[in-house]
Amino acid sequence: MHRLLRTFTALTAAAALGLTAGCSSGSGSGPGKDEREKKGEAAAASPKAAAAPHRYWVDPQSAAARQVRQWQEEGRTQDAEALKSIADQPMAVWPAGDDPAPDIEKATAGAADEGRTAVLVAYNIPHRDCGQHSAGGAHDAAYYRQWLGAFADSIGNNKALVILEPDAIPHIVDGCTPAQYHEERYELLSEAIERLKRQPNVKVYLDAGNPGWIDVASKLTLPLRRAGVERADGFSLNVSNFQGDGTVKAYGRQLSATVGGKHFVMDSSRNGKGPLAGDRQDAWCNPPGRGLGTPPTDRTGDPLLDAYLWIKRPGDSDGPCRGGPAAGQWWPDYALGLVRNAKA
Question: CB 3.0–4.6 Å: which of 160, 203, 227, 243 could bond 233 by disulfide?
């Protein structure tokens, strides 16, 4: 079954270290939003940011970063050093719970201070994940609109790249999401794009699955158009999956040609060894022997590919399979395996 699995920042860090991801202190702490936005404008031309291979924010309080510090304190210096391969890279923030503001404000404030861009995932569509490992989401359309509005408001004038609703379109295409919810989903996604694009420095990429899931790219064309992809900056591919760079880029070019030449971004967090061989059930869920892929960068050398991103946070479990913890929980042993098998 070629499906994907999302993770949540808060669950990730809580499993590892008993703390919420990013150690968010809530929307009432730290500098005010206006002050942070001014800092972002002042830092926009930061020489350090300009010289980096990417423009994205690295969370110093990610689960991986916390694990590095813990292992250093415990004397596991080799493992700590190895895990820096994850901790030192920018990864997407998946705002947790009913209130996305604390996680988003923390990420965008940190990014603004460094003249960088926060990578965020909006993942709360009603009837999410067809009741599987990452089931949940907003309980109705009205609540989703409220949640998405709070998501956008929390970004303010800061720079952000938003991956919009992983799985939502592919689950329409594969029939997993019941037909009675399709029209509502198209409407909500279209509204979400429009709302997010009101923020002056936000780029939005509507998720389109991966080539191992919806094997014929053109099956996604009409659904993407109905969801308003023409008003987005593009679409995202391979979120939380393992398809290799070449396969994903070829698929992206095929799909782009059917949706007006839209650009795309791809998740390369765990695709260094490609997908698990064979058409195995649950090949998407904590497959063994996988490795880190291309590090995040917006210097892709491909005119249609806007960025390689680590959207899935490497080391987060896909679910309770192959000895893993619950979906979204930090799994340091799996993280180390990804490092050891990293793409050369």
Answer: 203
Q: What is the DSSP track for 275-328? A: SPSS--TTTTSS-TT----SPPBS--S-SSEEEEE--S-TTB--SS-TT--STT
Of these residues, 167, 233, 245, 306, which one is catalytic? 167
Its pTM stands at 0.86
CB 214 within 8 A of CB 220: yes
The number of beta carbons lying within 10 Å of the beta carbon of residue 31 is: 13
Q: What is the DSSP letter of 136?
A: B
> Catalytic site residue 233?
no
For residue 34, indicate whether it is catalytic.
Answer: no
**Per annotation, catalytic residue among 129, 233, 245, 316:** 129
**Catalytic annotation present for 113:** no
The string of pLDDT tens digits covering residues 175-187 is: 999 999 999 999 9
The dihedral sign for the CA sequence 156, 162, 168, 169: positive
Mean pLDDT along residues 218-233: 98
